[in-house]
Design a protein that fits this description.
The complex is a heterodimer of chains A (110) and B (125).
Chain A lengths: L8 E4 L5 E6 L10 E6 L6 E4 L13 E6 L2 E6 L8 E9 L4 E4 L3 E5 L1
Parallel strand pairs in A: 1-9
Antiparallel strand pairs in A: 2-6, 3-4, 3-7, 5-6, 7-8, 7-9
Chain B lengths: L2 E4 L3 E3 L5 E8 L8 E6 L5 E7 L6 E3 L7 E6 L4 E6 L8 E13 L2 E9 L3 E5 L2
Parallel strand pairs in B: 2-11
Antiparallel strand pairs in B: 1-3, 3-8, 4-5, 4-9, 5-6, 7-8, 9-10, 9-11
The chains are: A mainly beta (110), B mainly beta (125).
Chain lengths: 110, 125
């Protein structure tokens, strides 16, 4: 049972825009910034968005993040086949004094 | 470039211990906390704890208290995670990840990047 709640799956066709939600509580998303990770099959998680809406070097700006209250979302526009992966949200939790993650969303490009 | 390279896969029997290493390069080792996260097969990510390579202080997730020990060797820029009393549920890929963070007037900003390539630990009789 993950502390942050994500939908288990999402899908879209090439070129479409998809969004993935992440719901938490006051002690995590409500108090701290949200990061998003992309995990391709058999590889380590890769930072996709940090501090709610910032791009690490090399991440295209068709990927974006936002946060409001105790929820956050990741949006990917101009969907491409290489976007097919698992996506995880993460935030520091002040009550648990540690990182908490969502259960992951499997994105399928139809 | 910043790189974290972990030790190879391990197979252990229930009750045994495992020690996974994570060698850092491309930055000042003592300037960034290192965190450990694990992922059971087909499951999500679970935070285990962190070590401050500068002084060696540690913080462990409650779930692993008493079973996990994180250490570091500053001479080789390597951190270690040892998990004892292994059981089948500990079968997972274990990752190290470097923390970047800062504070400003709006609060705390932190993120884990990069991550090591992962070490598969299999616990089986």
């Amino acid at each position: 049972q993950s502390v942050l709640t994500q939908p288990p799956s999402a899908s879209g066709t090439p070129g479409q825009r998809v969004t993935i939600s992440c719901s938490g509580s006051r002690s995590n998303i409500g108090s701290n910034t949200v990061n998003w990770y992309q995990q391709l099959p058999g590889t380590a998680p890769k930072l996709l968005i940090y501090s709610n809406n910032q791009w690490p070097s090399g991440v295209p700006d068709r990927v974006s993040g936002s946060k409001s209250g105790t929820s956050a979302s990741l949006a990917i526009s101009g969907l491409q086949s290489e976007d097919e992966a698992d996506y995880y949200c993460a935030a520091w939790d002040d009550s648990l004094n540690g990182w908490v993650f969502g259960g992951g969303t499997k994105l399928t490009v139809l | 470039q910043v790189q974290l390279v972990q030790s190879g896969a391990e197979v252990k029997k229930p009750g045994a211990s495992v020690k996974v290493s994570c060698k850092a390069s491309g930055y000042t080792f003592t300037s960034y906390h290192m965190h450990w996260v694990r992922q059971a097969p087909g499951q999500g990510l679970q935070w285990m704890g962190r070590i401050n390579p500068s002084g060696g202080s540690t913080v462990y997730a409650q779930k692993f208290q008493g079973r996990v020990t994180m250490t570091r060797d500053t001479s080789t820029s390597t951190v270690y995670m040892e998990l004892s009393s292994l059981r089948s549920e500990d079968t997972a890929v274990y990752y190290c990840a470097r923390l970047s963070d800062y504070y400003d007037s709006s609060g705390y900003y932190g993120w884990l990047d990069p991550w090591g390539q992962g070490t598969l630990v299999t616990v089986s009789s």
